[in-house]
Amino acid sequence: MNLLVKRLATGVLLPGMLLLGACSNGEDAAKSESAPSNGIQERTIKAGIGNSETHPQGQGMVKFKELVEEKSGGKMKVQNFFDATLGDDLKMTEALQGGMQEVTVPSTSPLVGMVPEFGIYDFPFVFQNEKEAHAVLDGAVGDKLLEKLPDQGLVGLAYWENGFRNLTNSKHPVKTADDFKGLKIRTMQNEVHLDAFSKLGANPTPMAFSEVFTALETGTVDGQENPLATIKTQKYSEVQDYLSLTKHVYTPFVFLVSKKFWDELSPEEQKVMSEAAQEAGKYQREINQTENEKALKTLEEEGMKINEVTAEEQEKMKQIIQPVTDKYAEKFGTELVDEMMTAVEEARSN
Ligand code: KDG
Q1: Is 22 domain-assigned?
Q2: 190: domain range?
Q3: What's the pLDDT tens digit per position in 89-143?
Q4: Is residue 28 a part of any domain in this protein?
Q5: What is the pTM of this model?
Q6: What's 155's domain CATH number?
Q7: Which residue has the least CA distance to atom 10 on ligand 1?
Q8: What is the DSSP letter of 109?
Q9: Where does ligand 1 bind, in terms of residues with CB under 6 Å?
Q10: Is residue 7 part of a domain?
Q11: How remote is the CA of residue 177 from the centroid of ligand 1, in Å?
Q12: For the chain, what is the domain count?
């Protein structure tokens, strides 16, 4: 992540400031490393996510737990809760705002009610690969959006990776833009997704992640869209026949901490959390990409009928959706969108 040294109006330290402040010179760093950890108290951190423990997001949380407990000498303990046992992304994020939970790592998409500008990450067909997405998330644009979180009672420490989303459904393969017509598709609670699928002629239904499997099983919806690792770990092959590799949107996860909790922490404790979230995030991104590759093979073995979508057809879908993207670019700020596209083009040309 591009560590902007900037103190927010709210006085919240950006992750980078802690790291840069703590390591302003080797001598200070040496002292802080060897000094007794009197700045660290016994604490329990309740951390919940929507995916399973075996999902890369879950494995990232296991790594986060290890790192926090190691860096704090065992004083800061993380209690991980998986499979939306603490609620779906929105509910858990609201629990952080209220101080009832300390950590969650949702997709940015359902948070657009709190930070509308997160919606720029939902523009279809913006990123061609993870490198381009990381260039935006770990650069100035990503930091600008994290800076909007403290006003919502949240602190964002890192972007993790949900990944490129693909469509599953129980009706027919989706190979062309026309094939979306009439499909009842579950989407995240996100206006860009809803408008984009409507523009393609589908019938989108916003729904919390934890309700998706049952909705597919009962036929409430025909399909859903998620990265391959999620499609695998949620066992959607049991209720879906077709997997179409649309790669229509790249979704980030954002590592969130309750600001009520964060503000109680000493700089040393904040450094433990910030370093652990970023190191676990690096690990999570690495395993996410390998898990997505492995998931494709598994899903084929489980009997899903899988089809690619050609670049030409992706371009047609992008053109059909363009009026939606233009509408939300105006809403979220064309300057920010232009900054994102410039970062994509720079990553693409390097
Ligand atoms: O906790 C994160 C999950 O809820 C995440 O997978 C959300 O991509 C998501 C979806 O489709 O709701």
Answers
A1: no
A2: 42-349
A3: 999 999 999 999 999 999 999 999 999 999 999 999 999 999 999 999 999 999 9
A4: no
A5: 0.90
A6: 3.40.190.170
A7: 209
A8: G
A9: 49-51, 89, 106-107, 162, 188, 209, 226, 230, 251
A10: no
A11: 24
A12: 1
